[in-house]
């Protein structure tokens, strides 16, 4: 290898390690919460909401009747858009009806919110206010919290930019990793857990990275796109083509078009439209919207997911006679090559296709992405605290190690605690989550032995999971212990999974201190050529030159 | 003999890779619909899908190029040319 090639390779290595160490903790946080978010809807939502365990009174009849009632008792100006968000484990737990004034014409347009319990059809919440404050009315559960945290860290636009940038840096890490690890096929089958801690870490890092490379690359790309789409990419795309008018861009390419009002009154066939959607095999309606309520030209849209299709579907209807006008996907109007790709981005990112097997695979691969971040951080610290690459005192690197353990194992603990918060303090989920995570972080920073800390934090997480079914027994009417068959299937599965993962975490005997075989001098670790990888050899060569 | 550092001007390079590449990529995403020879949908959505790869290419060029001045030259050229394309497209519309 020429000096020039070696310099290039060293540059890639330095780039790989610095991008990794700067973004490592955040990548772990996003990847771990992402693995949980795969199950956010419907599974976690179903577990979190007892109202979804009982039979629902939601039928085309009842929804249509409530929509007609809501329209009748409100001012006619609120009929520009009438939406019914149907309850279920996919998005909303209660039936929510929203009536809006025309917000395209009037920036001060108001909206009405009616929320009904799906079990009793009793009105549980009513609200009137500015159109912009509408979606703040939606109650949040742990599934919304965790998927929201994964998307934007609950930091709004700044969080979206951060997660988008993280997707970009993940792509950069994968590309640099490919450049420096040229013996990919060999590394697919190289795993030496018993040789030394550093080899265990580097082999784990490489094996997981290489086996899951397509998944990690896809997650990096879709994550970057989803994070930056609304804050940077759509405004940029609208800038030239629509003179900066983002609304116009969205109207041009989204499935739902507002009708030209005729001024002629007509009755709305809501029930017939809903019946058609409910009776379509494999279709699960999530929302119905009517534009131009009461007008002869009014249009209705049913937003739904289909068992056998990847993207969401929007079915359009003429409201005067419930005649179907056809089906479009979210981005089918974009057409060309981009439309199908855009339609696939969201389902691909969250594994929302192919049912439970895909979800399980996505969660496992998501956990592997978080493990790559964690092992990468640990390798970085190991090489500097105990190897030849460190330029600072060992204590500085060990401080970073403690921060990593506190942030990563603390997040796992906080995520397990989230289930308890959902049952015990559902209105303080965010405060409870961040309090436990913060405490774990402080605990890790104060402790000297991060091996013991990680063992304690993971043990505590395991205990929380093992006792979760007991909490269910205390807080739910029907649960795994009093009625395992009749209690909701999802809850029962969760109980078994919780106990299994919890026992696994408790049974896994993590070391209480750094293995002794690695307490060698810098010189000795750098001369075992047989053991070190390409990357080690490269960095050792760099250090010697 | 002093060994040449692996990366020249590391601070400027890092700032360019983080802020500069992002800025130039966003401007390119905005300007690309003006010259891409596709249908309307692909012309507008295509650049947004290409954005991560455009950023990645610029990021690697910024990090790996020997001369930071050359990096600045290329990025400024891309910025000005795409800025002018945006002005031209907006005037045309």
What do you see in this structure?
The complex is a heterodimer of chains A (545) and B (93). Chain A has helices at residues 3-37, 40-48, 60-72, 142-152, 157-180, 184-188, 197-211, 213-241, 246-253, 270-279, 338-350, 355-385, 394-424, 429-446, 450-475, 489-507, 522-527, 534-544, and strands at 81-85, 95-100, 110-116, 123-130, 283-291, 299-306, 313-318, 323-329. With 545 residues, chain A is of the alpha+beta class. An 8-stranded antiparallel beta sheet of chain A has the order 4-3-2-1-5-6-7-8, covered by helices on one side. Chain B is mostly helical. Chain B has one domain. The mean pLDDT of chain B is 90. The chains are: A alpha+beta (545), B mainly alpha (93). Chain A binds chain B through residues 7-8, 10-12, 14-15, 165, 167-168, 171-172, 175, 220-221, 224-225, 228-229, 232-234, 236-237, 239-241, 243, 249, 253, 331, 333-339, 341-342, 545, and chain B through 3, 6-7, 22, 26-27, 29-31, 33-34, 38-49, 51-52, 55-56, 59-60, 63-64, 86, 89-90, 93.
Instruction: Tell me the fraction of residues in β-strands of chain A, as a range.
Output: 5-15%
* Secondary-structure-derived class of chain B: mainly alpha
Strand order of the largest sheet of chain A: 4-3-2-1-5-6-7-8
Number of domains of chain B: 1
Unreliable sequence segments of chain B: none
Helix content of chain A: 55-70%
Uncertain spans of chain A, ≥5 residues at pLDDT below 50?
518-532, 541-545
Rounded to an integer, what's the Rg of chain A over CA atoms? 27 Å
Tally of strands of chain A: 8
Determine the fraction of residues in helical runs of chain B and give it as a percent range. Answer: over 70%
Number of alpha- plus pi-helical segments of chain B: 3
Write a brief caption for the model.
With 545 residues, chain A is of the alpha+beta class.
């Amino acid at each position: 290898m020429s000096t020039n090639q070696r310099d290039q390779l060293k540059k890639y290595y330095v780039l790989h390690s610095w991008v990794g160490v700067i973004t490592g903790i955040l990548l772990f946080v996003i990847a771990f919460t992402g693995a949980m978010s795969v199950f956010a809807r419907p599974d976690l939502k179903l577990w979190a909401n007892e109202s979804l365990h009982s039979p629902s009174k939601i039928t085309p009849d009842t929804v249509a009747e409530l929509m007609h009632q809501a329209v009748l008792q409100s001012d006619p100006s609120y009929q520009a858009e009438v939406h019914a968000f149907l309850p279920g484990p996919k998005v909303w737990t209660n039936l929510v009806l929203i009536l809006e004034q025309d917000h395209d014409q009037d920036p001060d347009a108001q909206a009405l919110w009616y929320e009904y319990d799906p079990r009793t059809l009793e009105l549980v919440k009513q609200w009137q206010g500015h159109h912009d404050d509408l979606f703040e009315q939606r109650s949040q559960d742990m599934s919304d919290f965790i998927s929201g945290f994964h998307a934007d860290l609950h930091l709004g636009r700044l969080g979206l930019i951060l997660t988008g940038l993280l997707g970009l840096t993940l792509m950069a890490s994968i590309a640099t990793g490919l450049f420096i690890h040229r013996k990919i096929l060999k590394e697919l089958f190289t795993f030496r857990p018993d040789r030394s801690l550093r080899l265990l870490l580097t082999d784990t890092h490489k094996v997981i990275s290489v086996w899951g490379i397509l998944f990690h690359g896809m997650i990096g790309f879709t994550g970057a796109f989803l994070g930056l789409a609304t804050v940077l990419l759509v405004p940029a795309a609208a800038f030239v083509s629509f003179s900066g008018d983002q609304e116009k861009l969205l109207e041009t390419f989204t499935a739902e078009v507002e009708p030209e009002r005729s001024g002629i009154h007509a009755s709305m066939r809501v029930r017939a439209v809903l019946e058609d959607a409910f009776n379509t095999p494999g279709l699960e309606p999530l929302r119905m919207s009517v534009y131009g309520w009461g007008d002869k030209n009014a249009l209705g849209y049913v937003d739904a997911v289909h068992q056998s299709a990847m993207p969401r579907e929007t079915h359009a209807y003429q409201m005067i006679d419930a005649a179907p006008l056809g089906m479009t996907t979210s981005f089918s109007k974009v057409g060309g090559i981009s439309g199908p790709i855009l339609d696939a981005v969201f389902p691909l990112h969250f594994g929302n296709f192919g049912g439970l097997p895909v979800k399980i695979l996505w969660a496992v691969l998501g956990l592997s992405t978080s493990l790559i971040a964690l092992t990468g951080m640990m390798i970085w610290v190991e090489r500097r605290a105990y190897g030849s690459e460190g330029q600072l005192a060992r204590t500085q690197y060990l401080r970073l190690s403690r921060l990593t353990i506190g942030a990563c194992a603390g997040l796992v603990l906080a995520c397990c605690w989230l289930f308890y918060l959902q049952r015990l303090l559902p209105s303080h989920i965010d405060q409870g989550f961040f309090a436990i995570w913060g405490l774990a972080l402080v605990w890790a920073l104060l402790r000297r032995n991060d091996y013991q800390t990680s063992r304690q934090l993971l043990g505590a997480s395991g205990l929380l999971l093992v006792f979760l079914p007991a909490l269910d027994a205390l807080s739910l009417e029907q649960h795994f212990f009093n009625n395992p068959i009749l209690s909701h299937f999802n809850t029962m599965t969760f109980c078994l999974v919780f106990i299994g993962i919890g026992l696994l975490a408790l049974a896994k005997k993590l070391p209480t201190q750094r293995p002794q075989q690695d307490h060698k001098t810098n010189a000795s670790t750098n001369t075992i050529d047989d053991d070190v990888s390409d990357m080690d050899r490269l960095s050792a060569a760099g250090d010697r030159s | 003999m002093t060994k040449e550092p692996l990366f020249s001007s590391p601070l400027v390079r890092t700032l360019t890779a983080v802020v500069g590449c992002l800025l130039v990529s966003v401007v390119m995403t905005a300007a690309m619909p003006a010259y891409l020879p596709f249908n309307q949908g692909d012309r507008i959505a295509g650049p947004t899908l290409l954005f991560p790869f455009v950023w990645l290419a610029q990021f690697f060029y910024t990090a790996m190029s020997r001369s930071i001045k050359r990096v600045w030259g290329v990025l400024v050229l891309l910025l000005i040319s795409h800025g002018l394309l945006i002005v031209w497209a907006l005037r045309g519309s």
